[in-house]
Amino acid sequence: MTGNKPLVGIIMGSQSDWPTMKNAADTLEQLDIPNEARVISAHRTPHRLTEYVSEARDNGLKVIIAGAGMAAALPGAAAALTPLPVLGVPMEGKVMGGLDAILSMCQMPAGIPVGTLAVGRSGAINSAILAASILALTDHDIAKRLDNFRSNQSDAVIEKPKD
Fold it and tell me: In 3D, which of 6, 87, 111, 99 has the Cα closest to residue 78?
């Protein structure tokens, strides 16, 4: 979104994660929630990660969505650097299909939580909806848009199958 201060930061380990993480950005756009996306590698750009995440709250972010594959260190490293909610999206991988990433994200030590979502596209979309749910706790307008989104989603489900 342009013109509005981002409430959700979307970070990913590499450019190759964008086709998946764009689903989170697109869902946030549908909900009219200002967001921004950055490529930040926990291993290759640790200083960028530290700067972005440690300044996130002061910059107005309320939630961070972090997508990563393989070792999937990005969400955990982000969670270690900020008190903001961090939602992790495991990327589908060639070696283990994303199992390695999901296990890395959900096995965080006590005190450093990462809300881990499903692997791939579904996880990216659900991370945006979960971020909206968190924001809706204190923002009536977002709550109304989220209610409408969910209602429209339910209305779109047909009752009887078609041939």
Answer: 87
